[in-house]
Design brief:
The structure holds 2 protein chains of 2 kinds. Chain A is of the alpha+beta class. Helices cover about 35% and strands about 15% of the residues of chain A. Chain B has 2 domains: about 80 residues, 2-Layer Sandwich (Alpha-Beta Plaits), CATH 3.30.70; about 150 residues, 2-Layer Sandwich (Alpha-Beta Plaits), CATH 3.30.70. Classes of the chains: A alpha+beta, B alpha+beta. Chains A and B meet through α3, β5, α4, β6 and α6 of A and α1, α2, β4, α5 and β7 of B. β6 of chain A pairs antiparallel with β15 of chain B, so a sheet runs across the interface.
Amino acid sequence: MTNTLHRYSEHYAVAAPPHPEPIRDDYIVFAMASKGINDDNLVEKYRTFLRLALKHRPVNIGDATKGGNIRPRQDLNPLAHWRRDHRADPEQVIAEIDGHTTVSAVFDNYEAMEKFIEELKDADLGISINISAPVDEAKRCCDDAGIARHSVEYSIGFSGRVDILPEATTLELSTMCGHGMVSANFAKKMLEWVRENRRTPEEAARYMARFCSCGVFNITRAERIMKRACNLK
Amino acid sequence: MKIDPDKCVACGNCVPICPMGAISIEPSIGRATINADECVECFTCYRGMSKEHLNPLMVRTVRRVAKLFRFRFDPEPDICPTDAIVPEELAWPRIVRRAFSDPQVPHESTGIHGRGTAEVKTNDVTHRVKEGEAGFVVEFGRPGVGARFRDIQRVTTALAKLGVEFEENNPVASLMTDRSHGLIREDILNEKILSAIVEIKAPTERVPAVLQSIRDLAREVDTVISVGVSARCDSKGNDLLGKVLEQEGYPAYRGKTNLGLGHATATGNSQNAEVRK
């Protein structure tokens, strides 16, 4: 699963600007156990990971086999069109963990991620912990927490038929679900709806987040991207 | 996947939802339909849309009346009002589409959900990528374009000629009939999937050459390729790979960092991994 590796930003544009704007609101920390190595009491380890994350107010948490903290519902009635419940349900994510998976927490600021990493270090869960973020920021976080990085994996972007990719803003939104569950056409539609004032950026971000089936979609960053694209404050 | 014409009310909500753009409203029947050749069985429409289970006849009547008066109803964009999207039982080789497109289905070959690979995420306990080695994660079809195995095979056969080592514990490798030549089974070559990852390893000094080969090969396929490169850090947590990528002109801004906090804790069996229900 490389679901958080290739999140598009202008650093990865075909014609990247000389000084791309740093991304300062998208930090993902995730945990993964390996069968037969460190998967004893796995469910409790994953739950501890997410409970520690919740102390630092993540914008999303998720279980790769069940979904994020805002999910589609199978039992809506027509009132949903006027009174939709957009609230996140992190307790559902924690309660439904039942075995091997990857659990993740998405933060919209460096400080929260760093404090979470320090707590994880102290908790010593024994499962593999990764940061998916700008590599320099992840290194800074490790240095601050007194952790020597074990391995690093760089995204070096896209090649091949890049001419058929959608435009940059749409890609920024749709690639926040690396599995491709947030379609480019839906991201475009949401951008248009915000532009037409049919929905707020907050609502539009939540519609998209429901499709991300592992909970790594960053709702805060999506709101920022849409506000920027639609010239909203 | 199919759309039940008796239930569909042609609201159009599912049309932009499909990552492959395989859903459209067929004017001759006034219902949504799915282009089976383009559908990758990712289940985004079925699982991602919320549902209301309304009576189709009632919804159609309301929509006709509203249309008569040129009223524009502004419904929630992620709801299928009549639960009209229905999964079909998939047989070989079509079942391969779902295995590589629906992240909530674990791959049989690896037992891992998503695209079925662990890359360096568990490298602190598996030691898959060792010092002096570079791991390459070559993903076909991402973001949101999709790929056919025929295109993937074009690249794997060329990579095999370069003498790179394919990761054994990988879903694409498990479908190869001849790993030394990068050949994938014939009967799935035309199957379209949302994305698939090929993992290879090579000595660190070959990183520029391998990346250049991948870039050259990418020009020959009808899809997009996303590439990740990984390396083991030294005992102080430093890596040389970033500098190599920078020197070669690759954007190496974002990535995954394995913190090395994993360690062996299990006692030989993983029965505790599952919650007893």
